[in-house]
């Protein structure tokens, strides 16, 4: 009957359709569920589809939706929806879709009930048993229906595919069904029965890729399949891989015109499929390699001569091995092959996918993911774009924090090392910006890098970053106010934390000593700039709240511990140098102690002085104080003369003697006093003269700081007396003037009177007068001074003794 009516539709479509509609109306009035009625309803569904196929094209489109599809849907909904009726519905929808396509539907024709038909077909898939033959046919109907207008949105297509995968891929394995007592069903649910459904699903996805009306993208299909490719059930992974092979095959054909340009999702899929080459199922391993082959072919310029064609087939055969070691070795070789043709710019997609496998509970797949990661970072590290590095570091750090297994953590640290080997600067930036500095995992990462062959390079980079952070700290005070003091201080503190960890494990001490001219100013700058600051609550766990610079002091001590002998470090601790450095009131004392110790240990290279010298003119009062205290201590030593720094330092200290900050003035006075007392005999006449002139100038303006300057004058008094007999007349004259200006600050009243009385004497006569007075008074005359003459005698040794002897 179906055949006869459909034949009539070729030449009498309108009449045949009217008769079938009339008969359908009589059937609708019969509510019987008898077998004969069910069969008639199913036959009518098929008849509508066949009539559409036979109908003249010009007549079909005018009546297909109102008189054909509407009756099909009504017949199905009012009938007993058994397997026979569903098969008839699926067949009818398929044939109607084919008929509309054959009729050459123009751009204006739209099947308004398309979404309703698709929803009905999805319900059929979800309602039918998993072994039902309805599934593949329903997917074929969807495939043909998807080619018709109106077009579905991208979200609708993705939702459609997700529901199809839910019904088709999520199948129970036969042995699972047998354990539940479903032996009859299990017998029919063999891989041969399930294959048509999987094949039809793959064809549906492929058709959506090809259809111009479907806005779905390849990445949407990847995202839909990802859930099943990473499933904990082997059967679901195997079925998803079978579908993935068909999708990739369709994509390869569709992208034939793009030959030589890799798939945009190559990295993500490679990271997803790579660990599956060690899946527990041999079939899954085979399908995974087949998928990788399709991926490689999408990027090959000529698939016929691709050099990896034979090799990947040979490696796929080896995946039948039963031992884990053999599987891992073969998987690693496949990874090396894939990495040879890995496209640039897809590293983040690869790592994002492979991290899922790293965290899975299947040991062999997790091990394979580790092998693939290390192979990729080792072979393709140079190809990774710098913009991708922060995300890779974040993924690896997340993986490190999520595991406590020693072997897994060693793998992550090795991966970070390989990434840093190719991109040291971006990796350091990412670690400093994204990882909490005091977190134990962050500490482990820095120490691991410090122990590696990159340790020296890492330390150099951190030193440079600390130097740059110090330079930029004064570049924009408005930015500091906008961001807040805690955020502005975060970077130097973070760098210092990392630097401490690297220095603590670094094997080469000589490198630390070589970097000292940059390390010491960088850390000393941070100590200086944090004087008097209050630590913000957000970083309060890093160090003591009352001494915000203690972190940098600890770092400075750690750095010097790698450069100085233990006896010098012990002496610094005993003198309280480290505690003084962080205290605002005692900072200058700590700097002087540090400078003195560096002089004695002969660790004051020229570059260190060059880096510190600009601080003397810094807009920061703290930096001026630090530099002035440091150079004031250096003025005692012949090093200043040897480095030809006496003249510029005298000028700079003279400038600082007029500094608006009193503590800076005091350090400048001390430095000039040290210069006067330690002015070398071989130095140029003009420099000796300048030192005494500057010292006299300081004395004339030091009335408000009498207590401090008195101590400085008493320390410099022997040198002032000594240089009254300087061979250069100009120096003698400058020294005489300075001595008269400094006299009011001496503790001995009689010495002050002698100097005041000798204002009309020459410099030599004044020297004789002072020395004669000191000898005549002997110890009694000098008791009012705060230092005994024996101390003065020790300052200049034989020269001073000669002066005393001649005066007597």
Q: Low-confidence parts lasting 5 or more residues at pLDDT below 50?
A: 179-189, 475-489, 535-546, 779-808
The proportion of residues in beta strands is: under 5%
Terminus-to-terminus distance: 150 Å
Helix content: over 70%
DSSP, total strands: 0
Shape: rod-shaped
Largest beta sheet, briefly? none
Mean pLDDT: 82
Which structural class is indicated by helix and strand composition? mainly alpha
Our Rg estimate from Cα atoms comes to 45 Å
Tell me the number of helical segments per DSSP (H or I, 4 or more residues long).
43
Say what oligomer this is: single chain
Folded structure, characterized:
- The longest helix is centred in the first third of the chain and has 22 residues, at 57-78.
- With 808 residues, the protein is mainly α.
- It starts with a helix and ends with a helix.
- 72% of the residues lie in helices and 0% in strands.
Secondary structure: elements and pairs:
Blueprint: H1 2-11, H2 13-28, H3 35-54, H4 57-78, H5 83-102, H6 114-127, H7 134-145, H8 154-168, H9 174-179, H10 183-188, H11 191-210, H12 218-229, H13 234-254, H14 266-273, H15 282-299, H16 309-318, H17 324-340, H18 347-358, H19 363-380, H20 389-401, H21 406-422, H22 424-434, H23 440-451, H24 455-473, H25 477-483, H26 485-505, H27 509-514, H28 516-529, H29 550-561, H30 566-574, H31 577-582, H32 587-600, H33 606-612, H34 621-634, H35 639-642, H36 646-656, H37 662-677, H38 685-700, H39 706-722, H40 729-742, H41 749-757, H42 763-782, H43 789-807
Helix pairs in contact: 1-2, 1-3, 2-3, 2-4, 3-4, 3-5, 4-5, 5-7, 6-7, 6-8, 7-11, 8-11, 8-12, 11-13, 12-13, 13-15, 14-15, 14-18, 15-16, 16-17, 17-19, 18-19, 18-20, 19-21, 20-21, 20-22, 21-22, 23-26, 24-26, 24-28, 25-26, 26-29, 28-29, 28-33, 28-34, 32-34, 34-37, 36-37, 36-38, 37-38, ...
